[in-house]
């Protein structure tokens, strides 16, 4: 099992650091999955209800000048490591003006990710700062726990408002209630609501815009013919939402929110077989739905030429009916499991 | 732009309805009296008064005159209710507390009457927030019976002179002792903490002293924990008037100029901890 990689370009390094910083704010520990072409940061939430999970996919070619990995066996050419992203974030903090950063998997006394930062110095020889970040190697039998999530049909997708405003509002709402309801419709309207015995607060965002979806897959067919004004809602833990909003350091050009309703059919139009087949753990989701999503992403987000990665952050609600909210932000790629936060990076770089 | 009043059901008028272009004019003043969770609001034709009390010894009032509002109408002679000040402040500052220049949150406040919640409509940058806060039966408020005829000693100071003193009060002292006298030391603040006693004297001819009317030497002690919250009001104000009456009750009145240059008042009343009115230096 080998892994070595090197980043030389300062802009790539800064961008990578910002992504890692964002991940560090979202998860205490996570899985780093390495394949030949990509890196993934995965937080797989084992909690059945009310938890959050995250999946971040980065194309290595967009960040690293050198990237070589070799899994334990040829037919399973992947490495899964468990690590504390805060450690990686701290190591990268020292690399703000680095000439180069090398990352290598080592096993001196215990498995570690060695981050060697080459800093500029006045003398001929450079200064090297080395960080050894302990990692746990995940055995192959457990890899299934971290596979790519399949994405159900969403009921509504909408662009998020200015994140700063949303964050201020959610921060205040956190003082008033533990849960927040996010509802959105296909008319570009989104509401954030909290309600307790003492107070109820609703913030209305208008003219947000709904992203157009590929129609050939029938993906939005549940949306066609639906009343544009009717709202789809999700009730989620406010702290998790604030964690996402407060922690993000990559400034998205656009952020998308998608709400999935599972196990419930309050729509009068045909319930799709796929949706009925959805079980609480999502295993029954048909794989082609995920492919459809990928096709959509490639088609609609492809226009962001320099798209480097995607991110998805999922928050489940606490009730039996799994409401899921998916936020999409352009810039960081978090797993699209529940709260779909899809971020697409837009970098202006020659790479 | 202020909101137009949402019509009340069945054509009733609201008991209290007010509009404010910049919600900060209200929220910053309310923060200056926010040392307890609950407050009693009294609305009359002259404006809004928000009262907070603690330990039956201290009372703070924030006054926002009707003129500060773009629209202010009270149907009955007065409207009074108790409300959670923490929740009210969270709602008023829903779009955040840091203010970008040129942006402000517009506010509309409506109250149908006894038993109804207080409705707030806030707007900033096209985003609208609607809040509904439940109200409660108003408490009976303390009456310090502090009128100008009973005032024994009175000083008006520029706030900048007192700000540092109040911010650095020795909190290990249980009391803050205030001495006011026609003779030296004129105006003295004293604390008696773990490290020792500290005295801060202000001479009557100091530049900071705007008015000095002391007829009698009075030394009074007040629980420092009760007075410490007044530092918030002091920080916002440009001038403060300090008055005591024959029983040693203290009245602190803060003149606060808001962002638009309008004047508002906050006052704190406090009972003395021990009463030492005889000449004692």
Automatic annotation (TrEMBL), chain A:
Keywords: Cytoplasm, DNA damage, Nucleus. It holds the Pfam family Hus1. It is found in: Cytoplasm, Cytosol; Nucleus. GO terms for cellular component: checkpoint clamp complex; cytosol; site of double-strand break. Signal peptide: none annotated. The keyword tRNA-binding does not apply. The keyword Cytoplasm applies. One of its GO terms (biological process) is meiotic DNA integrity checkpoint signaling. Belongs to the HUS1 family. PANTHER family: CHECKPOINT PROTEIN (PTHR12900:SF0), MITOTIC AND DNA DAMAGE CHECKPOINT PROTEIN HUS1 (PTHR12900). Component of the 9-1-1 cell-cycle checkpoint response complex that plays a major role in DNA repair. The 9-1-1 complex is recruited to DNA lesion upon damage by the RAD17-replication factor C (RFC) clamp loader complex. Acts then as a sliding clamp platform on DNA for several proteins involved in long-patch base excision repair (LP-BER). Component of the toroidal 9-1-1 (RAD9-RAD1-HUS1) complex, composed of RAD9A, RAD1 and HUS1. The 9-1-1 complex associates with LIG1, POLB, FEN1, RAD17, HDAC1, RPA1 and RPA2. The 9-1-1 complex associates with the RAD17-RFC complex. HUS1 interacts with POLB, HDAC1, FEN1, PCNA and RAD9B. HUS1 does not interact with RAD17. Interacts with DNAJC7. This is Checkpoint protein HUS1. It comes from Zosterops borbonicus.
UniProtKB/TrEMBL annotation, chain B:
It is found in: Nucleus. One of its GO terms (cellular component) is checkpoint clamp complex. The keyword GTP-binding does not apply. Keywords: DNA damage, DNA repair, Nucleus. Pfam families: Rad1. GO terms for biological process: DNA damage checkpoint signaling; DNA repair. The keyword Disulfide bond does not apply. InterPro entries: Cell_cycle_checkpoint_Rad1, DNA_clamp_sf, Rad1_Rec1_Rad17. Component of the 9-1-1 cell-cycle checkpoint response complex that plays a major role in DNA repair. The 9-1-1 complex is recruited to DNA lesion upon damage by the RAD17-replication factor C (RFC) clamp loader complex. Acts then as a sliding clamp platform on DNA for several proteins involved in long-patch base excision repair (LP-BER). Belongs to the rad1 family. Component of the toroidal 9-1-1 (RAD9-RAD1-HUS1) complex, composed of RAD9A, RAD1 and HUS1. The 9-1-1 complex associates with LIG1, POLB, FEN1, RAD17, HDAC1, RPA1 and RPA2. The 9-1-1 complex associates with the RAD17-RFC complex. RAD1 interacts with POLB, FEN1, HUS1, HUS1B, RAD9A and RAD9B. Interacts with DNAJC7. Interacts with RHNO1; interaction is direct. This is Cell cycle checkpoint protein RAD1. It comes from Zosterops borbonicus.
């Amino acid at each position: 099992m080998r892994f070595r990689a090197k980043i030389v370009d300062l802009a790539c390094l800064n961008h990578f650091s910002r992504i890692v910083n964002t991940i560090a704010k979202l998860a205490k520990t996570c899985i780093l999955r390495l394949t030949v072409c990509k890196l993934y940061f995965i937080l797989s939430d084992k909690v059945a209800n009310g938890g959050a999970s995250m999946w971040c996919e980065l194309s290595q070619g967009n960040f690293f000048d050198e990237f070589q990995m070799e899994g334990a066996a040829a037919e399973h050419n992947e490495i899964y490591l468990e690590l504390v992203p805060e450690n990686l974030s701290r190591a990268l903090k020292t690399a703000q003006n680095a000439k180069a950063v090398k990352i290598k998997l080592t096993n001196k006394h215990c498995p570690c990710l060695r981050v060697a930062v080459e800093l500029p110095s006045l003398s001929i020889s450079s200064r090297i700062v080395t960080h050894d970040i302990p990692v746990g190697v995940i055995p192959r039998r457990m890899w299934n726990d971290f596979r790519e999530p399949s994405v159900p049909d969403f009921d509504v997708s909408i662009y998020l408002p200015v994140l700063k405003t949303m964050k201020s509002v959610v921060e205040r709402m956190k003082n008033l209630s533990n849960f927040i309801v996010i509802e959105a419709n296909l008319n570009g309207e989104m509401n954030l609501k909290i309600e307790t015995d003492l107070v109820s607060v609703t913030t209305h965002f208008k003219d947000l815009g709904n992203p157009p979806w590929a129609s050939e897959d029938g993906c939005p067919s549940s949306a066609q013919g639906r009343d544009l004004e009717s709202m789809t809602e999700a009730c989620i833990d406010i702290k998790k939402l604030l964690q996402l909003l407060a922690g993000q350091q990559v400034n998205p050009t656009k952020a998308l929110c998608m709400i999935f309703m599972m196990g419930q059919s309050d729509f009068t139009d045909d319930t799709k077989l796929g949706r009925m087949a959805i079980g609480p753990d999502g295993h029954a989701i048909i794989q082609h739905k995920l492919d459809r999503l990928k096709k959509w992403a490639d088609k609609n987000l492809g226009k962001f030429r320099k798209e480097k990665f995607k991110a998805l952050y999922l928050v489940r609600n606490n009730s039996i009916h799994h409401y899921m909210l998916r936020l999409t932000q352009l810039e960081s790629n978090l797993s699209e499991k529940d709260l779909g936060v899809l971020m697409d990076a837009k970098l202006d770089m020659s790479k | 732009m202020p909101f137009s009043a949402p019509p009340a059901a069945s054509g009733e008028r609201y008991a209290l309805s007010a509009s404010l272009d910049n919600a900060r004019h209200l929220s910053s003043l309310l923060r200056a009296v926010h040392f307890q969770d609950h407050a009693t609001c009294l609305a009359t034709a002259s404006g809004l008064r928000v009262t907070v009390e603690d330990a039956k010894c201290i009372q703070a009032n924030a006054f926002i005159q009707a003129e500060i509002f773009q629209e202010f109408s009270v149907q009955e002679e007065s409207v009074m209710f108790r409300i959670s000040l923490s929740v009210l402040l969270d709602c008023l500052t829903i779009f955040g507390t840091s203010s970008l220049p040129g942006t402000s949150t517009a506010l509309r406040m409506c109250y149908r009457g006894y038993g109804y919640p207080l409705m707030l409509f806030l707007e900033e940058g096209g985003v609208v927030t609607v809040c509904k806060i439940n109200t409660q039966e108003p408490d009976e408020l303390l009456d310090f019976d502090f009128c100008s005829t009973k005032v024994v000693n009175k000083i008006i100071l520029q706030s900048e002179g007192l700000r540092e003193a109040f911010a650095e009060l020795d909190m290990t002292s249980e009391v803050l002792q205030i001495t006011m006298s026609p003779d030296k030391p004129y105006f003295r603040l004293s604390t008696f903490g773990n490290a020792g006693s500290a005295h801060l004297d202000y001479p009557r001819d100091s530049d900071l002293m705007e008015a000095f009317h002391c007829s009698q030497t009075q030394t009074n002690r007040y629980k420092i924990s009760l007075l410490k919250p007044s530092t918030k009001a002091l920080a916002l104000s440009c001038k403060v008037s300090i008055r005591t009456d024959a029983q040693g009750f203290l009245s602190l009145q803060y003149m606060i100029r808001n962002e638009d240059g309008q004047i508002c008042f906050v006052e704190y009343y406090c009972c003395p901890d021990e009463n030492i009115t005889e000449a004692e230096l």
